[in-house]
């Protein structure tokens, strides 16, 4: 019995440790807000699962209680595993990467957690204290973010979670958990007041994140809860009236805010203005609606099992919409859990995912261990969480909270609080032997799953730190130390890459990125530059060969070749990338730029025109098209383009191309028109820069004088530039 008690306490202690994961921030790691939390979660689950397994093998009372909810979760994980196996990139689907730390490995840990928690946490008191601990931590997190608001210039805050969206959903859960605990059947008055006291802090924390999806989710969830309570207690005038008043206040406040959305009070407050700017034309919402259309097309292409987890990048490349030119070039999520799971595991996986929510609702309805008000608050929680998941994606903290609710609900089913555990004695020796067998297995599992990725991560950050030191000291003139630090950085990054973990892709990308930073440094020794070049090429070739249908790595490899002066090799990679993502303007424009460098102006013109016409508002495509027209001598075409893009008059790049082609009159005219119409002080010396870059000092001096005449308040800067030009 002593061994049983020890193992059971290990499980319970591990479950109670999980709420503290939110506090983990490891600055010595790449993605410090993500990796540490996930590694801690995995290690804790591996330990408690191993302890539970020993108990379940020996004692039947610890074995899973199969409910529709648990079966839904098992089915979901099983279908997702099949989808990953037959998807585009099983390795990444299984392991994910440092930035996300999701994949099948995380789903398996979540499943293990739910199985263990619902089997061992079979005491009302245990779950009550679990949520009390979690709520107390959420209160501290809220205090922290409020303190942050007095010392940070950031508009949107995130405390220890690293992302405002993550903090918002964390607070969302605890707002409803506080209410669920407050409306237990038996609760002391001071205890209920303590739960209520956390609400202003949690709500203000959500406000400081300025997260619209979570805010709307909370509003919808509370209205549903209040409406449900009113319906269930329609014969109780006091409860009915209170519920209707609460719902009415929430609705009236929301309508009132929306009515005031154009007031100066709202518009001059960055946080309130963000809430007031909700519309389909809002940049983030506009981008997501485009991405969702891509997702629908991709689900239709592979409806049964989808593409596998972590493979939305293929969808984004294959189905790229040119209207995305102003947004993130390498989306890996749809920012909608319905579409995310539809992409990851097809219609079957999506239905299994939704069945978890449906089964949870059924169990909440059936159980007699929650009061009616608690049930409606849990329904409101699911509504709030489900709504905010239409605009974001999950991460480890929201997973822990949601699946803790799942385990809690499974545990309370069929009056589990009241069940009498069958006493099984005389099995201590068996349990001891089982435990001794499992211990080396769990140690091996922990090392296999966690040690190498952590080591590689620390080497990665160490290498990037050395690279930063190298550039800093080298630029200051300490070239010997700069070269030494550069060698050390490359050595650490190569070693991190050689460990071949799920972080290898990110490590290899950092090798390529850092190599490009070192190339223009004149103080770097040539052999070190070439070592960086060879390592960057090796890293990107490795990734390209590992994922031959991903346009990302040919583009990155092309960039490396471009920086190191290899235009032919650059073009080869860009052409491959264009095959994989034929509508992506960034790739088309890179090929156009390559054509410029190789003096193939006609090809550059055709490509830049294609990119420009594919979607309106692409300033970079417009710039390339304008430059191509000028370089090919089509000044009439440029003039026509300029009529629709007067801002080009203030663009030093356009002015430089005009000056290089000796179109001085046009350059001066469009710049002067721009300055007269816009009065933009940031473009006052744009034409000066264009002339000076080509050694036309006298014209540069004339332009400075003209700028001083046109733009008030720049006299001092103008005189300073004149002195420099006359030296």
What oligomeric state is this?
Answer: single chain
Shape: globular
Amino-to-carboxy terminus distance:
90 Å
Instruction: Tell me the number of helical segments per DSSP (H or I, 4 or more residues long).
Output: 32
Number of strands: 0
Structural class: mainly alpha
The proportion of residues in beta strands is: under 5%
Q: Which stretches of 5+ consecutive residues score pLDDT under 50?
A: 415-420
Largest sheet: none
Summarize model confidence as the mean pLDDT. Answer: 91
Give Rg in angstroms: 30 Å
Q: Report the helical percentage.
A: over 70%
Structure overview:
The chain is globular and about 95 Å long. The chain is 73% helix and 0% strand. It is mainly alpha-helical and 727 residues long. It has helices at residues 2-17, 35-58, 68-85, 90-95, 103-120, 124-151, 164-182, 189-209, 212-232, 237-259, 264-267, 270-276, 283-301, 312-318, 337-366, 372-388, 396-412, 428-475, 479-498, 504-518, 526-546, 552-563, 567-580, 585-597, 601-614, 619-631, 635-643, 652-660, 664-678, 686-693, 697-710, 715-726. Helix 9 packs antiparallel against helix 16 (372-388), helix 25 packs antiparallel against helix 26 (619-631) and helix 31 packs antiparallel against helix 32.
């Amino acid at each position: 019995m002593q061994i049983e008690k020890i193992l059971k306490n290990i499980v319970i202690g591990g479950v109670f440790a999980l709420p503290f994961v939110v506090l983990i921030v490891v600055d010595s790691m790449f993605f410090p807000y993500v990796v540490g939390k996930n590694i801690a979660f995995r290690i804790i689950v591996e330990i408690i699962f191993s302890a539970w397994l020993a108990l379940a093998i020996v004692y039947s009372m610890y074995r899973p209680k199969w409910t529709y909810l648990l079966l839904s979760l098992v089915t979901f994980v099983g279908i997702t595993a099949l989808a990953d196996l037959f998807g585009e990139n099983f390795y990444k689907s299984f392991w994910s990467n440092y930035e996300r730390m999701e994949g099948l490995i995380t789903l398996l840990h979540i499943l293990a957690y739910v199985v263990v928690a619902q089997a061992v946490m079979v005491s009302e008191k245990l779950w009550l204290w679990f949520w009390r601990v979690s709520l107390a931590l959420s209160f501290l997190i809220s205090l922290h973010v409020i303190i942050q608001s007095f010392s940070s210039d950031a508009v949107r805050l995130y405390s220890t979670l690293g992302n405002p969206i993550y903090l918002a959903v964390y607070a969302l859960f605890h707002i409803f958990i506080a209410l669920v605990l407050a409306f237990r059947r038996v609760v002391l008055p001071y205890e209920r007041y303590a739960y209520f006291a956390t609400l202003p802090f949690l709500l203000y924390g959500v406000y400081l994140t300025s997260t619209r999806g979570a805010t709307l989710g909370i509003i919808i969830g509370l209205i549903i809860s209040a409406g449900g309570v009113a319906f269930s207690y329609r014969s109780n005038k006091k409860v009915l009236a209170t519920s209707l008043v609460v719902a009415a206040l929430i609705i009236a406040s929301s309508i009132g805010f929306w009515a005031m959305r154009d007031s100066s009070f709202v518009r001059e407050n960055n946080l309130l203005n963000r809430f007031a700017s909700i519309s389909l034309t809002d940049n983030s919402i506009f981008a997501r609606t485009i991405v969702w259309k891509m997702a629908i097309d991709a689900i239709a292409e592979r409806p049964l099992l989808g593409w596998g987890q972590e493979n939305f990048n293929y969808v984004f490349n294959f189905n790229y919409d040119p209207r995305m030119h102003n947004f993130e070039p390498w989306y890996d999520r749809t920012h909608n859990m319905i579409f995310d799971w539809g992409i990851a595991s097809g219609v079957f996986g999506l239905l299994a995912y939704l069945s978890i929510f449906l089964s949870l609702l059924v169990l909440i309805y059936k159980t007699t261990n929650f009061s009616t008000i608690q049930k409606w608050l849990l329904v409101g929680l699911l509504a709030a969480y489900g709504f905010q998941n239409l605009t974001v994606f999950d991460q480890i903290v929201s997973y822990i909270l949601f699946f803790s609710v799942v385990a809690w609900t499974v545990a309370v089913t069929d009056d589990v609080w009241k069940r009498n555990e069958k006493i099984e004695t005389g099995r201590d020796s068996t349990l001891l032997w089982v435990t001794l067998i499992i211990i080396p297995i769990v140690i091996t599992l922990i090392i296999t799953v966690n040690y190498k990725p952590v080591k590689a991560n620390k080497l990665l950050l160490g290498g990037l730190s050395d690279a930063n030191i190298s550039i800093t000291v080298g630029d200051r003139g300490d070239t010997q130390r700069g070269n030494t630090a550069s060698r050390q950085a490359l050595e650490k990054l190569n070693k991190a890459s050689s460990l071949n973990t799920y972080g290898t892709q990110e490590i290899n990308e950092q090798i390529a990125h850092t190599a490009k930073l070192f190339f223009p440094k004149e103080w770097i020794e040539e052999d070190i530059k070439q070592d960086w070049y060879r390592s960057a090429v090796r890293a990107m070739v490795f990734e390209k060969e590992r994922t031959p249908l991903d346009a990302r790595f040919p583009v990155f490899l092309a960039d490396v070749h471009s920086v190191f002066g290899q235009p032919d090799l650059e073009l080869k990679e860009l052409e491959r990338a264009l095959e994989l993502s034929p509508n992506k303007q960034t790739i088309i424009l890179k090929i156009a730029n390559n054509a410029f460098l190789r003096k193939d102006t006609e090809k550059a013109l055709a490509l830049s025109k294609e990119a420009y016409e594919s979607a309106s508002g692409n300033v970079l495509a417009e710039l390339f098209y304008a430059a191509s027209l000028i370089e090919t001598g089509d000044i009439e075409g440029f003039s026509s383009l300029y009529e629709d893009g007067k801002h080009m008059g203030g663009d030093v790049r356009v002015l430089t191309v005009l000056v290089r082609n000796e179109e001085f009159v046009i350059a001066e005219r469009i710049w002067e028109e721009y300055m007269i119409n816009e009065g933009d002080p940031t473009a006052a010396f744009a034409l000066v820069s264009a002339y000076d870059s080509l050694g036309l000092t006298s014209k540069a001096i004339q332009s400075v004088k003209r700028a001083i005449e046109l733009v008030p308040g720049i006299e001092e800067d103008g005189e300073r530039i004149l002195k420099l030009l006359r030296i």
